[in-house]
Amino acid sequence: MKNTPIQLHVITRIVAFIILAFSIFLFFAGHNNPGGGFIGGLMTASALVLLFLSFDIKTIKKVLPFNYAKIIASGLLLAVLTGMVGMFLGDPFLNQFFRYYQLPILGKTELTTALPFDLGIYLVVVGFTLLVILTIAEDDS
Amino acid sequence: MSTLHFVTLAPFIMAIFVPIIYKKFRHLHTGWFILPLPLILFIYLFQYLPLDGSPMETVSYSVAWVPSLGINFTVYLDGLSLLFALLITGIGTLVVLYSIYYIANKKEEPLNNFYVYLMMFMGAMLGVVLSDNLIVLYVFWEITSLASSLLIAYWFHKEKSRYGAQKSMLITVTGGFSMLAGFTLMYLMTDTFSIRGIIAMADVIVTSPLFIPAMLLILLGAFTKSAQFPFHIWLPDAMEAPTPVSAYLHSATMVKAGIYLVARMTPVFGGQAEWFWIISTFGLFTLLWGSVSAVRQKDLKGILAFSTISQLGLIMSLLGLGSAGYHYEIIDGTSLPIVAVLAAVFHLINHATFKGSLFMVVGIIDHETGTRDIRKLGGLMTIMPITFTVSLIGIASMAGLPPFNGFLSKEMFFTGTLNSATLDVFNVGNFGVIFPVVAWIASVFTFIYCMIMLFKTFTGKHQPEKLDKAAHEAPIGLLISPIILASLVIVFGLFPNLLSYTIIEPVMQSIMPGLTAPGEQFYVNIYHWHGFNTELFMTMGVVFFGAFIFLNQKKWQDTTFYLRERDPLNWFYDNGLTGLINGSTVVNNVQMTGRLRDYFSYMFIFLIAIVSFMLWQSNALAVDFTNTTEIPSYMYFVSLSLILSTIVIPFVSKRISAIVLMGVVGFLVALLFVVFRAPDLALTQLLVETVMVVLFLLVFYHLPELRKETFKPVFRLSNLIISIGVGLVVTLTALSVHAYSYENPISPISDFFVENSYALAGGNNIVNVILVDFRGLDTLLEVLVLGIVALGVVVLIKFKARKGEDV
């Protein structure tokens, strides 16, 4: 994409970060408001896809040198390990826990094992979307 | 977790460490590290033997596995399981020792694979005999099939090894599967998976209509595993495995799993005419078929394979004949069929000792001369004197000659068949004469193949030019294990009552629990000299006729009977397998056209069929427009645009317009979600649509030039009918659900989530709470699918098959 207009670059730079920030908000809001790992992951992925569309793949790969297959694997691992926490405490697999803590700055906050589980899903969704799109995009034949 | 649980799991744990040991200590044979494990297990289990003459105490421990389904990992040790566990660990020890010398520590030998499979097998076999739960037993049972076929294919570069492995796997796993079905039927009848629980409810099972199917299905599993006719054909091909494996799996342990199962189930099914007839006739026929087929084998291991088949048939038939004892109201030690069960148990032990040693001896001959073909061997008596002595003992015991243990069990076998001939139950009547006659004929053939084995190998002219290696006596390490087994043959032969008080009695107690009153003991005495009776004359006849036929072998060695070595039943297996492959290719070619639209029509036709059938079947078809919500005016607009954009898609000829229209449909659906206040779904739908458009654009770039496809009107018409049908069925379902819920107010499942999501999971967003808390496993597996799909896409694109390359 050599003839990409400069406006697209500029707008993308700004918008991508807004989307990214919003996706992180969505991810954390998930438990009580619309959002969660799946949607957050999709939104992050679409922000990154926007970057890929605007700039060429090589540039972005230099900036974001991630191996998406590994992101998928680590997401799955995180979800499974979170599920196993319950097993060590004598509960069934994937039993989630939550409790309220008084944290500095944030105040009364709920900490739950659902969050790392959701993070696992988030990672898988991001990894999946980008891996599929990039593999198809890079296919030259 | 008790120590007994650990006994079952120890080999599996060992298997995990085998590759590490193999990598770290390359200079030392991996087998040396394995050897202590079966030995320790054997010594541990040995302590359970009632050595002081008191009755054996059974032990049982349980660990919950899936308690809600009644599946618990319960280990149960009684006489029967102790006997098998001792065989598995005892012979396992000797086999590991033997394998250390048999499979040399060369670089190219994948020793780690061998010992991993062997440990897997040992643990699975212990699990089969120790578990009290049918499902757990089934799981271990299938692991033995798996491990055994892996061991058969150990030298997988040989085509025959792979063939043998596939055959044993297909046959035994098929049997195991039907056994699982039988176990399920047992559960339906008794509501328990526990074997002891089922035995306690035997009277319920006998009267159930499911009795016969359950029995047949379970017997199919036992027969395939124990190589009973006509499923025996896998055993000769399994001889492609390394000899230690043959000695262990195919003579001493795995093939006896079927016998174990039959013995275990005797208290449940025994005493029924069907059980008696099926097991005794199949057993006797296998005995005869195996011994006749063994005579014409030219490969020493082939002879032993068919010999094993025939001896397994013998034990099986004895268990069948003995089950008649259950028919008598009062089971006591004097009733005749008891002798048959006694003979079965005794022969089981004897067979493990002599056949194990014989397999090892054949392995030695193969190892030191380079061949197992009896046409090339000969004159080894003076060259390999120790091997000869061990073989002589094993073969004499197999042939049933005194003073070895085989003689004793064969005499008891004759007694058992003679007793059954006089039975007056199960319409035996005149048929009973067949039992001793078949037994006698089979014994003659047994005697003949024993003589062939002994004389063709060790006497006659030595032909060094036909051998690959210069024959010499084996190293001491190879000889230890067969010598130990051969000395057991002699010890059990001379002092049979060593076994009768310690192990045979407890085994009898577990096969026939009603044998004695509580606290009372059942006394077994086995004598060498039992007078000039029919059995002794039968043995004399066997020796006389066997020797006569063997000495006249020149006359029958040129007949087609002798030259056709391969079992004729293999024809059915081979043709069945190719037929299966060809048949499925035909079905595949019809069904898997490679065109997405065909797949979709199949799926949708199926959907229409099953949903409309269910609606009609359950009489749920009802349309009721009362009590509908008022539709706001803008909904007409949204629905109309949705319907219009969907209808337009098939008529658009340009691809890009079709994609855009698809996007419009997607966004309109998202709009519907917004209208119905489902922000999570709307958000997801919007994002998915966005990503999909990007994906579509990328794929679009790669798509081949669109050529104008013309479809026949029939094709278009059928597609139209299918799509209208789907729409109709879905709409009708929705309307019926509405009508139904109006008539029968039911509280939807979402009420539960609304009430409990904050209390139980601490979240207000019930969609998210369902995803991560209530149905977390679903989500986990869904993202697992995503991961697999991603890998699939990568593999498909990065490693594309070249043109014309077959997948």
Task: Describe the 3D structure.
The complex is a heterodimer of chains A (141) and B (807). In chain A, helix 2 runs parallel beside helix 5. By secondary structure, chain A is mainly alpha-helical. Chain A has helices at residues 6-29, 37-54, 57-63, 68-88, 114-138; strands at 98-103, 107-112. In chain A, strands 1-2 form a two-stranded antiparallel sheet. Residues 329-333 of chain B have low confidence and may be disordered. In chain B, strands 1-2 form a two-stranded antiparallel sheet. By secondary structure, chain B is mainly alpha-helical. Among the domains of chain B are: 273-567, no CATH class; 597-756, no CATH class; 757-807, no CATH class. Classes of the chains: A mainly alpha (141), B mainly alpha (807). Chain A binds chain B through residues 26, 30-39, 42-43, 45-46, 49, 53, 68-69, 72-73, 75-76, 79-80, 83, 93-94, 96, 98, 110, 112, 114, 117-118, 120-121, 124-125, 127-129, 131-133, 135-137, 139, 141, and chain B through 679-680, 683-684, 687-688, 690-691, 694-695, 698-699, 702, 761-765, 767-769, 771-773, 776-777, 779-780, 783-784, 786-787, 789-791, 793-794, 797-798, 800.
What keyword list fits this structure?
heterodimer, A: mainly alpha, two-stranded antiparallel sheet, flat, B: 807 residues, mainly alpha
How many H/I helical runs of chain B? 33
What is the residue-mean pLDDT of chain B, rounded to a whole number? 84
Largest sheet of chain A: 2 strands, antiparallel
Which strand-content bin applies to the residues of chain B?
A: under 5%
| Structure summary, number of beta strands of chain B | 2
Largest interface: A-B, 50 and 40 residues
Q: How do the strands line up in the largest sheet of chain A?
A: 1-2
